[in-house]
Amino acid sequence: MSTEVLTQSQFYDIYKAEVQSQAGEFSDFNEGSMHDILAGAISTCMNELSELIVEEFMKTYFDLAEGDDLDKLAVDHFGETFSRPEASFATGSGIFSRLTTEKGNVTIPSGTIVKTKKNSSGIEIRYKTDAEVIMTGLSISANITAVEAGKSGVVNAGTITVIESSLTDSSISFSNSANTAGGEDKMEDADYREFLKQKILSLVGATLASIQSTALAVAGVFYAVPIIEKKIVIEYDIANSQILAGAKYFTIPYPVLYVADEDGNSSTQLINAVKEAIALVKACGVEIIVKGAISAPIDWTASLTLNPSGPNYSVLQSDLSMIKEQMAIYINDKIAIGSGFNKPTANAYILSIFGPSGTDDITTFSTSVPSGNVAGAIGTKLIAGTVSLQ
């Protein structure tokens, strides 16, 4: 159904045409005439009324509603569990360490603040420890959570190195042992619509698609891939530590769910959040193993030929960043966990956007690095490394 609203001028013309068809001898529409005044007033009212009707009509569809109207529509239809997720906090872990135990046991309280060094803009990212730990030796690990919610809390390993809180041993240092993960800004409308679709799919319950959708609806999860793995077993007499007489080998299938955030990282907290969520939709008695995907950077180098007649030729001559951005998007967003890099498919993706069937800005595109296809590996998420064009 079209939601196009007629303009005031179109409504005016409809009024004029109707009057002239019914009583042509009384159809004076000169400026300031009675018909001109009536047509102007009626057409203005109809235009405003039509816009209001369409505006309210759009609020009743998930793909058309926006902002607070989209929130109200989702909650009204499905309840509070379908509310727009708030920004989530990045989590991770790190190691407190020291060179000697001269100061004895040191209690590191829950809420101890550690942070990154200030960047060129004077910004530092602060984190707090999740629980109290006691350092009795030279090192001890601790889980941390960003103080402020959002993507800003997602940082690389080894970048959280400053201890803001005072400890009884000033020689203690800290470093995050892995990338932090899970931090997300409050969802924009487009992401919220996708969240709602995943939540609706999760209502099916106890299917791989439902489990995947439930995991994707967890704040901070960007990738979720369920895989059925198989284990060969045989009947065994545990009491006597021997295989039962006449026993045969058979196969037990079991599901494994690999998850990661937008950067291909995961954390213990993120994995636990997914476990808690899928417990509500998995079949009774079925154990689903949740694992964090391993991110693997991949470099991509390609050569291209610009089309001098293309609409962006003057820009692309000096700046190919728009194409390189799409190359990174292909690796980060279009290659699923466990999937590899296929050169013909990757070339075709870029050509579909910028080639003759797209913007027609390039005539050829060919990948040189990697030199061949890169096979996927279970539990591994390829992420964009160095992306370059020649």
How many β-strands, per DSSP? 16
Distance between the termini: 47 Å
- Tally the structural domains: 4
Q: Could you tell me the mean pLDDT?
A: 90
Strand content: 25-35%
Rg, nearest Å: 30 Å
The run of helices and strands is HHHEEEEEEEEHHEEEEHEEHHHEE
Helix content: 25-40%
Low-confidence runs of at least 5 consecutive residues: none
Strand order of the largest sheet: 7-3-4-6-1-8
**Large-scale geometry:** elongated
Class from secondary-structure proportions? alpha+beta
Number of helical stretches of at least 4 residues: 9
Largest sheet: 6 strands, antiparallel
Description of the structure:
With 390 residues, the protein is of the alpha+beta class. It folds into four domains: 8-82, no CATH class; 91-176, Elongation Factor Tu (Ef-tu), domain 3, CATH 2.40.30; 189-290, no CATH class; 295-389. Helix content is 30%, strand content 26%. It has nine helices and 16 strands. The strands form five sheets. A six-stranded antiparallel beta sheet has the order 7-3-4-6-1-8, with helices on one face. Strands 9-12-13 form a three-stranded mixed beta sheet. The chain is elongated, with a radius of gyration of 30 Å. The model has no long low-confidence stretch (mean pLDDT 90).
